[in-house]
Amino acid sequence: MSSSAPNAVLSVSGIGKTYAQPVLSDITLTLNRGEVLALTGENGAGKSTLSKIIGGLVTSTTGHMQFNGQDYRPGSRTQAEELGVRMVMQELNLLPTLTVAENLFLDNLPSTCGWISRKQLRNAAIEAMAHVGLDAIDPDTLVGTLGIGHQQMVEIARNLIGDCHVLILDEPTAMLTAREVEMLFEQITRLQARGVAIIYISHRLEELARVAQRIAVLRDGKLVCVEPMANYNSEQLVTLMVGRELGEKIDLGPRTIGGPALTVKGLTRSDKVRDVSFEVRAGEIYGISGLIGAGRTELLRLIFGADLADSGTVALGSPAKLVSIRSPVDAVGHGIALITEDRKGEGLLLTQSISANIALGNMPEISGGGVLNSRDETALAKRQIDAMRIRSSSPAQLVSELSGGNQQKVVIGRWLERDCAVMLFDEPTRGIDVGAKFDIYALLGELTRQGKALVVVSSDLRELMLICDRIGVLSAGRLIETFERDSWTQDELLAAAFAGYQKRDALLNDAVLRDTP
């Protein structure tokens, strides 16, 4: 469809972007009113760069755009938003020390004679939050006290306020619960009915099939497909994205599973983690499944010393030797690594180079007498860039310029230099495309062949079934059951994930009945 089509709200023609090297080349496509255009491709394919150009965060090197038939070249995100082009990014644009209401209306606080009208602000926030299913949250709550999933919904609500003609959603469901995802999809349907055009960026192909009318696929900065969504199934899309076929099975290679390397007994913290016990053997991948809020991240933080347990023990080696872990420094000293789910907030210094980020946990190896050896730092970074196949222009490239998958590889590369015997992975492939996922899986296999014990938390049940030797299921803070490979089914794993909540609810109902006169 040409840019002059009467239903076109946005058209881009010949758009290219070059940093140290080209990241986008000759992108031409049209976005129509009331449609959802899925935008997908491997990490590093150029999806975020293209969306940032449309959203006014980045200026293109070549090409031009039209918005509602007029030349469109926003100089900033603010200019784009004033015209009605909004973008919800993976990096949340919220101020944690302000309330939900203040974040929603930061640029347009209701006031009288210079004083903020708290009542008006609260009422407006309640209305905006209701659109995305946040009715239960007090608008006076500080954003920093909310979980990442709720923060994401606040960010979406903020961008739906006012006049919106184009909405860009970058991996919007990566941190949402199933209920929140349904609320988002309902909102997308309402927006379409109002004529809002939506660019929906995601690696979750089943979601794209559900919400999108057309799909645009990027590969290596080039547009390889703009077609009706109904023309492709998931396997065909994956082949378009990566340029090769990927199977649904993975061979982790020959491994020897040894004795216990990590033994957890009775680990407890309030009602988040309750009396959890398990062991992980050398050379094994032990998966942890469960619903969001089941205590998966909290369990890893307890093992790593990021939070302190009320009771319980952690032991290492075989025979098991109890260790005292009161902080992450203690954990690292004992050879335990944690690759956090929030790589941008907790795992990386986004404004620093690849070499600086990899060096962060390896200072003794590249410094002497308190002075950093830049040659050793660069050599260390090059070693991990090659080993991890990190797509970058050089070790000096800023981590913020990398795709999500390559950022994750930088985090993992830092820990690989420390040669930790126990590695805890929290959502290691969240926000990462299919091709990069298989790179991470291959890396996990290599780590197990080195005899390391891996604990992997993932919301993707199929991922755990693909790579794990055993899967433990957490429900309402308790470890319900551990399944062996080839003896689990998806239905059994899901049933176990709900079991703890059903038992808890039954106990609460019994208690209410006993207290009722």
From TrEMBL:
GO MF assignments: ATP binding; ATP hydrolysis activity
Compartments in which it is found: Cell inner membrane; Cell membrane
Keyword Nucleotide-binding: yes
GO biological process: monosaccharide transmembrane transport
Keywords on record: ATP-binding, Cell membrane, Membrane, Nucleotide-binding, Repeat, Sugar transport, Translocase, Transport
A GO cellular-component term linked to this record: plasma membrane
All residue ranges annotated as the ABC transporter domain in the record: 7-245, 257-501
Source organism, top-level taxon: Bacteria
PROSITE patterns for the chain: ABC_TRANSPORTER_1, ABC_TRANSPORTER_2
Membrane topology, from the record: Peripheral membrane protein
PANTHER family linked to this entry: CARBOHYDRATE TRANSPORT ATP-BINDING PROTEIN MG119-RELATED, D-ALLOSE IMPORT ATP-BINDING PROTEIN ALSA-RELATED
Protein name as annotated: Arabinose import ATP-binding protein AraG
Species of provenance: Pseudomonas antarctica
